[in-house]
Amino acid sequence: MRGLGGFINYLRRNPALGIGLGILLFLMLFSTVGEMFIDPDDAYALSTPINEVPSAEYPFGTDSQGRDLLASMVVGTRMTMTIGMIAGVIGLGVGTVLGFMTGYFGGLIDTVIKFIVDVLMTIPSFLLLIMIASSVPDPDQMSIVQMGLILSIVSWVRPTRAIRAQVLTMRERAFVMMAKLSGMSGMEIIIKELMPNLMPYLAISLAGAVNGGVLGSLGLQTLGLGNLREPTLGMTIYWLRYYNAFLRGMWWWILEPVFIIALAFIGFLLVSIGLDEFANPRTRRTV
Amino acid sequence: MRIPIGYILRRMGFLVAVLWTAATINFLIPKLTPRDPVAEWVTQKIASAGASSVGMDEQIASLKALYGLDKPLWQQYLTYIYNTVQFNLSFSIQNYPKPVIEIIQETIWWTLGFVGTATILAFVIGTVIGALVGWSRAPKFLQFLMPPLTMFSAVPAFILSLILIYYLAFKAQLFPLRGGYSRTLLVDWHSLDFIWDVVHHAMLPALSLLLVSIGGWALSMRAMMVTVEGADYITFAEAKGLKGATIFFRYALRNTLLPQVTSLAMQLGFIVSGATLVETMFGYPGIGTRLGGAIASFDYNVIYGIIFFLVVGIALATFIVDLMYPILDPRISYSGGG
User: Fold this and answer.
1) What residues 111-150 of chain A have any CB closer than 8 A to a CB of chain B?
2) Which CATH class is domain A10-49+57-252?
């Protein structure tokens, strides 16, 4: 795979990765370029007439608190994705360090961390997040970054486990032996030999961790845990339930966030399926 | 066959570790937060009653003494662990003096009912579909089921439930919009009308869980089926002239079930988390909606009690599945590792 042309050629053979990346790219453009066409202030309450059906002036309609839903969706997608990225990047970072440390060096630290990871895998992370988020002082003032940090408290567990497992299988391979014989130190082997070979797995872990962060933030915000003022996708769901959008048949308010959220998760899924195929070209296609 | 005693002890040790961790987190988080539920509750009561705030501090202090919050931390911790071991989860702050365990007893059966049914159905349907798709002699049209099921499996159940509520309950009016039973009916578990009404109300929440979980089971089952199909014992069964159905059910399916059961245990926590949110969407009278209500009113005894209860349930279920392995698959070795 060389250069952009080679990459596009590869995507033709791996449509899941191509379509998945396409979806995520679309959402990224929607939330960044889209911001040039809207007034971000309209994404907040009391900026438009309420309960407007989609029209030329408000293509996505407005909600019961006077938010322009087009602006809300643009700003909300960006915020929710940012929360997911913060949780994902921190989760992957911590997971990579712990995964390599425990997988490569083993010993007491491996036993301890593996035990902690196993215990935390049994306790559902979402329930843990509810406890943490409901105890934060002034949860209704929480910033996007704080929300991402809260989610990263649990987002490292799965990457640690996955990366440790991969390092364990790779540690005994011939090229690592070779590197050891040629006198490379442990850290050098990890960075120069193992990391590049594990890149696809790290990417899969990142996709999973971002996905988990987005999912967790949606769940918390749907329950009203988070900044009620910010037009994140999860808060949109909270408010549409609060104002009974169902009983009033406000289809636009319901379907817009649902569509974007579903699109994002399908994008994550396709990317991880595609990366999986990239990492193990021998396994059968999954879709 | 015998289950090795060392294996059981190791799993029990792990179970205790999980429960102790959960209990300790439960205890520590409220101590670390600057939020003060007792003070918040008193302030809220005074504000809603329009009463004067004279004597508020004394009131808060005496309430704290009632909950034992004035004692040193280590003493509170020991009392807490002692109480938790006896499943004494303290009282609701909002609905004092209602014990949290009573709130759990009132709601848990609703949740177990629809979540249990949906999970078992999804597991069976998904496993069979996945097995058939992976089995080269099965009808080909089943292949077309996989892409939509995979897409559904990516979307969280509570997001899907919003679409189901809008189209099936609001537009088509096939199902009730919310709740566990019609408000016009008396709660009477001997009346068939009432039971049908309850089932009718549970259908949409269960369907949301069902649709998102079938795909996962089907995907993992298909992958395993493909590896089993080439195994020698399948070829041998064919050579013996066994019927296709016999080979499929007795030889192939049976051998691929163990990893499925393993992941069922691993998924339980995820299913329960998803179900709490689905319940909130429907206002279903289960433990998830109650948890949502407790969050809204910051009744932390109820929040922590319900969460601890769910963690105990999941840990116990995992433990039971662990104990079932040796019976399900005698091939596994239980010495060391784990």
Assistant:
1) 115, 118-119, 121-128, 130-132, 134-137
2) mainly alpha
Write the DSSP symbol of residue A250. Answer: -
Q: Tell me how far apart the alpha carbons of residues A283 and B77 are, in angstroms, rounded to a whole number.
A: 51
Q: Are A159 and A95 in contact (CB under 8 A)?
A: yes
CA distances from A116 to A158, A261, B125, B187 (A): 12, 32, 34, 45
Amino acid letter, B9: L
* The pLDDT of residue B249: 86
Distance from CA of B306 to the nearest CA of A (A): 10
Cβ neighbors of B44 (< 8 A, separation 6 or more) are none
Helix (H, G, I), strand (E, B) or coil at A62: strand
Q: Chain B residues with CB inside 8 Å of A224's CB?
A: 292, 295-296
A246/B170 CB distance under 8 A: yes
Q: Tell me the per-residue pLDDT of B8-54, one tens digit each, with 9 for 90 and over.
A: 899 999 999 999 999 998 888 888 877 777 787 788 778 777 767 77
* Residue B91 DSSP class: B
Average pLDDT, chain A: 91
CB A227 within 8 A of CB A141: yes
- The ipTM of this complex is 0.89
**Which structure tokens are listed for B284?**
């279903």
Cβ-Cβ contacts under 8 Å, B136 against chain A: none
pLDDT band of residue B107 (cuts 50, 70, 90) is: very high
User: Exposure of A222 by Cβ count < 10 A (0-12 exposed, 13-18 middle, 19+ buried)?
Assistant: buried
Distance of CA A276 to the CA centre of its chain: 17
Encoded tokens for A73: 């969706």
- CB burial class (10 A; 0-12, 13-18, 19+) of residue B108? middle
Nearest partner of B309 among B87, B92, B116, judged by Cα: B87
Digit-coded pLDDT (tens) for A30-80: 999 999 999 989 999 998 999 999 999 999 999 999 999 999 999 999 999
DSSP count for chain A of H helices, then E strands: 12, 0
Provide the shortest C-alpha distance from residue A121 to chain B (in Å): 8
Q: Greatest CA separation found in chain B?
A: 90
Judged by CB atoms closer than 8 Å, whether chains meet at B29 and A286 is answered as: no
Q: Which residue did the predictor score with more confidence, B185 or A168?
A: A168
